[in-house]
Amino acid sequence: MSRIIAERADVIPALGEIFRRCGYEGASIARITEETGLGKGSLYNFFPGGKEEMAEAVLADINRWFEENIYR
């Protein structure tokens, strides 16, 4: 069953997996739309800064996880 993406935070784990597998350069917008099931309009609604903002959001999420689960 596919997961419903209703908020920006819902797509960040999927983006993280795409960047992990493909790298920043290999994670094209076409690949991201295909693998997340979101159209370009939805992606740019969540991330107006495009792929760079998506990568920043993934890194911020990873940093938050380390802060909450490792450093504390």
Give structural notes.
- With 72 residues, this protein is mainly alpha-helical.
- The protein has helices spanning 8-26, 29-36, 40-46, 50-71.
- The chain starts with 7 loop residues before the first helix and ends with a helix.
- The chain contains four helices and no strands.
Structural class estimated from helices and strands: mainly alpha
SSE ordering: HHHH
Overall number of strands: 0
Shape: globular
Task: List the total number of helices.
Answer: 4
Please describe the biggest sheet, giving its number of strands, its sense, and whether it closes into a barrel: none
Mean residue pLDDT: 93
Distance between the amino and carboxyl termini: 35 Å
Cα radius of gyration in angstroms: 12 Å
What ranges have pLDDT less than 50 throughout 5 or more consecutive residues? none
Strand content: under 5%
What's the helical proportion of residues?
over 70%
Brief overview:
With 72 residues, this protein is mostly helical.
Describe the SSE topology.
Layout: H1 8-26, H2 29-36, H3 40-46, H4 50-71
